[in-house]
Amino acid sequence: MKKQKVVKKPKVKEVKVEKTVAEPVKKVMATPQALRGMKDILPAEQPFWLFVADKARALAKAYSFEKIETPVLEEAGLFIRSVGKETDIVEKEMYVFEDLDGAKIALRPEATASIVRAYLNHGMWNLPQPVRLWYQGPMFRHERPQSGRYRQFFQLGFEILGDTNPVADALLILMASNLYKELGINTSIQLNSIGCPTCREVYKTELVNHYKAHRSKVCESCKKRMQRNPLRLLDCKEEQCQTVKKDIPQILDFLCDPCRKHFMSVLEYLEELGIPYFLNNTLVRGLDYYNRTVFEIYSVGDDGAAQSALGGGGRYDYLAETLGGRATPACGFALGLERTASKVKEINPALAEKKKIDIFIAQLGDLARRKAMVLFENFRKAGVKVAEDFCRTGLRAQLEIADKLGARYTLIVGQKELQDGTVIIRDMESGVQEIIDFNKAVADLQKKLFLNAS
Ligand code: AMP
């Protein structure tokens, strides 16, 4: 027989540590804080976020959307060209810096531009069209922080690329509506069409004429918007501008035939599907790349009044061309995870309650802990809902945890059981204990749990 090589445990040299007198702390260092507008999403919040993400993932699967992840950092030019130089996002809110190579980099303020870039970079037009993609990730905007508004926030979104058909717009609105229904959130959908570059130009002229006639009554920002970005006049929330805004020409009256037909068709789909919507003639979305259908979803309070925007989207048929690619009609929708998860928490706080477990494994002493760890792995691999707290030593403390977790049984491995090759089972309801064979523990407990369940 071959002699087995005995591997000796290396001797650990004892190092004598000189006792030193602790020096008095000279200066108390301030602990760094998270940046303004950035927040930690702590474990207590995670169940609500996961609930939203799981529902969204299931919907993405049901409607055949494939996941895509794009980098958080992009060339700043990508957003300047797509979102628009004169939008709030690019002009005031984008995090831009020069990297070590001197390139002008931006932290993405939104994901649609990146996804269109990826679509073009990877020749996705060669795939069967349309290409349906979804994403989830952090976005960055240097906005004034307030409740529900952060400088790093998460969006989850769906994009349909390579399809001009109004059914794509309706499908996205249907998905958004379904998602919020499944999350238990009451919403209202607001909808508008901002036409195509041709008919929008006619509307813009009319709009500016209307504002020119009332120039003295509007705020300074609106005076600038009249020249630089007239559609943004409709976004103005200033009190003094509201009377002028109330009487604006209706954009829907200016749509060209193809744009009107497209919009009517979206509305017909929504009516057929029984999705209620409100037409909002001042809804334009603050990004330059949108055309035709634009929409936003608001949460609705018990009084039926619309609260904050949870998400929004629309068509962006010209974005691919703006980025130097081939014409690719497309549309998309993004929701804010912070606002959605916080709504879920408000409605369904019970989601944070810990799920009950079947088995808790307790141990007494170092050697027992090793065996208990093996036992835990066996249960876990067998698919049993099992928990432990191996960092604790006292039995009482471990039983308290088992109780808190709602364990049906606690298995106790002590010194004696270790020698006997057994384990104690404690019924957590009756407190009755029995001893079983260590090696049969998984099978015995599975049987017990099955009998309890039936
Ligand atoms: P937008 O495309 O800008 O309308 O953003 C879509 C959604 O993302 C919004 O409806 C919000 O729910 C969310 N969102 C946008 N900006 C922020 C922000 N600064 N903080 C938190 N959520 C935001």
Q: In percent terms, what proportion of residues is strand?
A: 15-25%
Unreliable segments of 5+ consecutive residues: none
* CA-based gyration radius: 30 Å
The biggest sheet, with number of strands, parallel, antiparallel or mixed sense and barrel status, is: 8 strands, mixed
Q: Which ions, cofactors or small ligands are bound in this entry? A: adenosine monophosphate
- Number of DSSP helical runs: 15
Report the strand count.
16
| Neighbour order of strands in the largest sheet | 1-5-6-11-10-9-7-8
Structural shape: elongated
In helices, the fraction of residues equals 25-40%
User: Structural class, please?
Assistant: alpha+beta
Mean pLDDT: 92
How far apart lie the N and C ends? 54 Å
Give a quick set of tags describing it:
binds adenosine monophosphate; 20% strand
State the gist of this model:
By secondary structure, the chain is an alpha+beta fold.
